[in-house]
Structure formats: C-alpha cells, structure tokens
Amino acid sequence: MLIKSPPTSAERESDVTPEAVYLSRRRFMIAAGGLAAMGALPLRAESQRYVDVEPAAAPAWFADKLAEVRWGAITPGEEALTPFKDVTHYNNFYEFGTSKGDPARYADKLEVEPWAVMIDGAVAKPGLVSLGGLVGPHQLEERIYRLRCVEGWSMVIPWLGFPLSALLKLAEPTGQAKYVRFETKVAAEQMAGVRSGFSLIDWPYVEGLRMDEAMHPLTILAVGLYGRVLPNQNGAPLRLVVPWKYGFKSIKSIVRISLLEEQPRTTWEGLAPDEYGFYANVNPGVDHPRWSQANERRLPGSLFRPNVIPTRLFNGYDEVAALYSGLDLRRYY
Ligand SMILES: Nc1nc2c(c(=O)[nH]1)N[C@H]1C(S)=C(S)[C@@H](COP(=O)(O)O)O[C@H]1N2
Ligand SMILES: [Mo]
Questions:
Q1: pTM of structure
Q2: Residue with the nearest Cα to atom 6 of ligand 1?
Q3: Does residue 102's CB lie within 6 angstroms of at least one atom of ligand 1?
Q4: Which of 129, 137, 143, 301 might form a disulfide with 307, Cβ 3.0–4.6 angstroms?
Q5: Residue 118 — left, alpha, or beta (φ > 0 → left; ψ -120 to 50 → alpha)?
Q6: Where are the domains of the chain?
Q7: Looking at the DSSP assignment, which residues form a beta bridge with residue 161?
Q8: Topology of domain 71-324, CATH
Q9: Mind listing the pLDDT tens digit for each residue in 180-217?
Q10: In ligand 1, which atom is closest to the CA atom of 91?
C-alpha cells in the first residue's frame, strides 16, 4: 500500500526519547487529569503502575505516538496486571529457543531496525511498508487483555497498539479476501532457535484469522506494552494480539500480512492438527487431547501458591460469541 516512509533522519539515534523522560511525562499526565476526580490515593497507585519497568530508548516512530495514547481504552476490571518482569521473562518465542527463559536471553539479537512489512494478496493497495509508515496513521490505545496460553497458564498484559481492522482498511481488501495470513521474520543468524535445528517448526511461523475475526475491534497489532516499546522477546516491533484465542494465534515480529481467499495453513495446526486447530478459541469445554483446559495458572504464581482460576469461554470476551453462531466449537477447535 506504499504509505510514505518517514525520512531516515527520523530514525537516527539522536531522536530517541529516553524512557525516563517518557515515564515522568506519563506520571505527570495522570496527576493532572486525575487529581480532582479520584483524590490522592488511587492516583498514586495508578501513577506508580509502570515505574518498575526497565528503562529503554524509544524509536522516533513510537515516541511520537505517546503523547496521544488512549490510556485504559480496554481494561479487564479488577484483575491485577502480571508484573513486567514475568511478562518479559516467561515467553514462548520458539525462534529463540523452546524454554520460557530463552526469548529474554537471546531475543536481543533480533534486529528490529529497519523494519518493513509486506502487505499483499487480495488488496487494492499492496506494497512494502516501513514500520513508521505502517504505525503513523493510527492512534495508539492501551488495551489491557488477558492472554491464555494453550499450555494452561495466563497473564494480564497492558498492550499498546491499534486495531488490525484500521490497517486492513487502508490496504483496501478486495471481494476475494476471506482470510488473513501472517508471517514472522526468519533470520537464522539472529535466531538461536531457528539455527539449532532442534525445533520441529518449519519456519517461518505462520498464523491466520478469518476476515471477520481480523476485523473485530478486539483484534489489535501491538507495538508496545507497559507504556514502552515492545521488548524483542514479546514480538518486537509488531505483533498480533487476539485476546479470545489461545496465545499461539498472537504471532510475533510480523513481516508479512497477506489477504487470501483460502484458509491459510498455520504452524501449529500443520504440526499437530488433532491438538491445535485453526480457530483455537479459548474454551474450557474442549480439552487438549493431553490435558484439561478447564482451569489456568494465572501468573505470577509459585509452587506453593499456583493461583489456579477457572478458564472462561472465549477467555471471557463474550462479545465475540456472535462470530461463531452456528459453528460447532468441538469440531472447529
Ligand atoms: N513467531 C512466533 N510467535 C509466537 C510464538 C512463537 O513461538 N513464535 N509463540 C506463541 C505463543 S504459544 C504464545 S503463548 C505467545 C506468547 O506471547 P508473550 O511471550 O508475549 O507472552 O506468543 C505466540 N506467538
Ligand atoms: Mo502459547
């Protein structure tokens, strides 16, 4: 779709905003907006929410967006956020290894600048778009979502992103567009898990959605979390988040988005179709062949306090139920 790239000067080191500057600005914004309405106590809790976050430099395309974020656009009510430390050190990102600590250990090797995304297939405006060009037209929103992994653990993560529907509309899908296919970057020299040959995955990691799922307002492309730019281990610089589906649908470090007429073949479905379906809607009533999906371990927990809670249909996002009326969820898991 060839949205114009920002000038290369905008991506120079000198233009990055130190995270500390951003954090103090955010604290100030909350104080100014919330004082009268909420009084001092809740204010303090709110303003300290992100103070523990590790410092990081933000690239210009991200820093430019922070002044106009819609904070708290969607929140899960009373559920506590999973701490930044857990969100960024307990990950699945097989390109960097199969243990939960591997992404945090090795994903700093991922080169995220420059980054471009190919948008192709059944669209009137295909093309290679720079990350700045891709994010530029969109207001960032903070979406605090539950993330439920098919393995039986879950987190609550404050993402920063924008609706996938807004991006797709700009590309102008044609009448042939029935599905969206996403592909992750592959760079063996940067990705220990790809190099190892130990994984069964046939790279690139691929995911897909039906068009109506892709256009649903809950479906976002995330570029940040905890008020900062997305850490590499969480799928920098751009990843999908579909909160009512098992985590493996939320594909990381996207380099290609294709609109298709046919349902794409996705990574986990291709590996083990009897265990991982294309839909992968969170459903406590449909067990994985090797374990129950009735409950989940909400992180953080400990050996002695595992913090087990019941899993909810569609991960509690009841508003998506209409997408599946008439679909047998036991058959299309
Ligand atoms: N490219 C890629 N995307 C991926 C994965 C992966 O291995 N590779 N793992 C998925 C799984 S199983 C989960 S649970 C989530 C985890 O996201 P998080 O580490 O940001 O919590 O990412 C998903 N996206
Ligand atoms: Mo997962």
A1: 0.87
A2: 93
A3: no
A4: 301
A5: beta
A6: 71-324
A7: 141, 222
A8: Sulfite Oxidase; Chain A, domain 2 (3.90.420)
A9: 999 999 999 999 999 987 778 999 999 999 999 999 99
A10: 19
